[in-house]
Amino acid sequence: MSKLVTAAEAVSRIGDGAVVTVSSSSALGCPDLVLKALGDRFRAEGHPRGITTLHPIAAGDMYGVAGMDHLAQDGLLARVLAGSYPSGPSSLPMPGIWQMIVGDRLAAWNVPSGILFDMHREAAARRPGVLTKVGMETFVDPTREGCAMNATAAAAPIVKRVEFGGETWLHFPNIIPDVCILRATTADERGNLTYEHEGAYLGGLEQAICVRNHGGLVIAQVKRVTVADPCARMTCGCRAIWSI
Questions:
Q1: What CATH number does domain 4-116+178-243 carry, 3.40.50.620, 3.30.70.1150, 3.40.1080.10, 3.20.80.10?
Q2: Whole-model pTM?
Q3: Phi and psi at residue 33, in whole multiples of 5°?
Q4: For residue 60, which of 33, 100, 20, 91 has the smallest C-alpha distance?
Q5: In the chain, domain spans
Q6: 86 within 8 A of 49, measured Cβ to Cβ
Q7: DSSP letters spanning 22-68
Q8: Per-residue pLDDT averaged across 222-229, rounded?
Q9: Residue 176 neighbours by CB distance under 10 Å
Q10: Degrees (nearest 5) of the Cα angle 82, 86, 92?
Q11: Of 66, 154, 183, 206, which one has the fewest beta carbons inside 10 Å?
């Protein structure tokens, strides 16, 4: 099977109920073409339904890059865990994802970005989640909001207090992603990616390794494809689709 497919073909492989992790930072590195294709597929087919998305940093902004707003459709999204959400001036209309959150139309949590990245690393290594003191006695703490942004999220806690080694910690159990969507500059036919025209790496390697280690699918939106160096090694062994 060729790794080089269209964005529409790539997202056709995402199933109902999938957990999808997205590498982005607002407009920086945002795989907007693939996210749009996923939103378009749902409008046309009604699938995939009930997916969960993980965003260590927001995908998209309020200045012209829709990002996760492509997915802000009832029935498509069931849960969102994000380190941040699309933002901009209050004079602009509220993004669709925010309308869903404040309307309690999906479960949404605001999890510190570092914890979300750590969750991917722990899941990749098959360790039992993240133990941290980051967020104790703040909105992150389950004795307060537990990261929940609305009532639906509050009814399904994602963090708890535990005792370990004589100390109290916050424990975030693993959430295993089935699909990783990221953006790079160049891909070769072996699955190697380079980021020479991107502004930052944004944790894409950790997200891809996490998905690959659990037998999932990596979708990379790239600008161009090149012939593989016969002496090069796979950098992460991803089973990937390069969507252009």
A1: 3.40.1080.10
A2: 0.92
A3: -60, -45
A4: 33
A5: 4-116+178-243
A6: no
A7: E--BBTBT--HHHHHHHHHHHHHH--S-SEEEEESS-B--SSS--GG
A8: 88
A9: 17
A10: 155
A11: 154
